[in-house]
Amino acid sequence: MSASAGEGRMRVSFLIDFTDLRRWQAEAIVGVLTATGASGAIIPVTGPPPAGLLDLCLAFEALAFRRPRSKPLDRISPDALNLPMDATDADLVIDLAASTETTGDRLLITVGGFGVIAGAADAIMAGEEPFVDLIAVVDGQQRLVGRWHVAVEDRRQLGSGMTIAASRAIEMLTLAASQLAGGAALRDLTLPRVEADPSPHRPGQPALFAAAAFARSLAARLERLVRTPPNWAIAWRTDETGDGALPTITGRPWRRLADDGQRFYADPFVVRRMGRTVLLLEEFPFATEKGVISAVEFGTDGPVGTPRPIIETDCHLSYPFVFEEDGALYMIPETSGRRQVQLWRAIEFPDRWEQVAVLIDNIDLGDATLFQRDDRRYLFGTVRPNWGSSWDGLAIFTAERLTGAWAPLFAGPAKVDVASARPAGRMFPVGTTMIRPFQDSAGGYGAGLGFARVDRLDAGGYAETTLMALRPAPPLSGLHTYNRGGGFEVIDVIADGEAVVVTP
């Protein structure tokens, strides 16, 4: 499927329906040609009829929510592609139109069996997160190459989720084309694939969704006037689990860490050091809407006093991943707002910390979680691609030393799954296996928590098996971190009111 040096550059033809050409397709073409060094050409085809009123719905959303229209969804002229129309033999054909009349070997990208935009719109209008499928068509037979379950960060708007689906489609196509350019065969091509299957397709109704968008926009404005952001809260208990077991979280009482109603607490990590047990956490004052890292000491009966800020910078801070190495205590807080993964060291525990290194620069990495095996270190987190989400794409980096150099373990994400990608706490052993806590944001950020067994972790790939997936019981509506240490277990939940005890 690749061109040899004697044959010149690889040639890629893109199937395009000029009646439904959008900017994301142009970006996909640029990504493929840049990654492969190939020459490109366009083949006009007929795709499925565009969804009626979809563009009107997107325009209405931009007005109702007072946000600019999403650029990846803009229609563009074929002239903007700046590529020749050529139907001669190509080394690779990529179908960007979900054409119903095309034959021959090719890569086909769809959402729910339809084009990326139309399929994503239907999924979002049905209240679901889209599944982006990459399909290899070889000798008339279709084979699923990869399946990614992508996030919908704002379920009130079509444009938001459709843009994220388009972003992941671009990434998926670029990764696949790179493999083919490197010598892989189309019939053997493989990308990460979630095991879940999408729900049966349900056609959307853009006109009704647009009408409801107006009501949602008014409700959102009123809500901002009378309510604070979601009230995350930390809950704790003495350690009932111990080493070598999965925790039983739901159906059990947990004591809530009290707050004053002017802030929330989330992302709890507990550490025992120098005879002291300290809870580190994200503190989010509603007045500033910027997270800081705070700490509160634990006695034998729980927290002593009120959390106090210990690290504050000009960007939002959260997820204070804390660990010991060579007698020193370190922290990797989330600093994605600065597009860095930073390493901090305690110089006077627990109140004084200093930044000692930038582990990875120019990256939007969510909830960095360190794991060491043998002589190598691995850093798990979710990367937000251009136009994409940080909820759904698990990336893994590796290094021999803590300070680096850190490099991707392999090209592309280890998995793309809004229901299990984002880390949710420190990894821990159960028997001879390693367990990775994960967030489930299907239906909303931090809606659930789960635990997966790591089955494979090497340069050839990553694999895990979900052992437990939890959703909290009403009235709780969120659960997205678990940690333990110093004789305590800690979680965070979305809990309205002032309940002293919560039961997920």
Fold blueprint:
Layout: E1 11-16, H1 23-36, E2 39-44, H2 54-64, E3 92-95, E4 106-111, H3 116-125, E5 131-138, E6 141-149, H4 158-181, H5 206-226, E7 232-238, E8 254-256, E9 263-273, E10 276-285, E11 292-299, E12 302-311, E13 318-325, E14 328-335, E15 340-348, E16 352-361, E17 365-373, E18 376-383, E19 393-399, E20 407-408, E21 415-416, E22 428-430, E23 433-440, E24 448-458, E25 461-470, E26 479-485, E27 488-494, E28 501-502
Parallel strand pairs: 1-2, 1-3, 3-4
Antiparallel strand pairs: 4-5, 5-6, 7-8, 7-27, 8-28, 9-10, 10-11, 11-12, 13-14, 14-15, 15-16, 17-18, 18-19, 19-20, 19-21, 22-23, 23-24, 24-25, 26-27
Number of domains: 2
Mean pLDDT: 90
- Strand order within the widest beta sheet: 2-1-3-4-5-6
The fourth-level CATH homologous superfamily of the largest domain is Glycosyl hydrolase domain, family 43
Strands, count: 28
Distance between the termini: 52 Å
Q: So, CATH architecture of the largest domain?
A: 5 Propeller
- Major beta-sheet overview: 6 strands, mixed
- The low-pLDDT segments are 1-6
Please report the number of helical segments. Answer: 5
Q: How helix-rich are the residues, as a percent range?
A: 10-25%
CATH topology of the largest domain: Tachylectin-2, Chain A
In the CATH scheme, the class of the largest domain would be Mainly Beta
Relative strand content: 35-45%
Oligomer: single chain
Rg calc: 24 Å
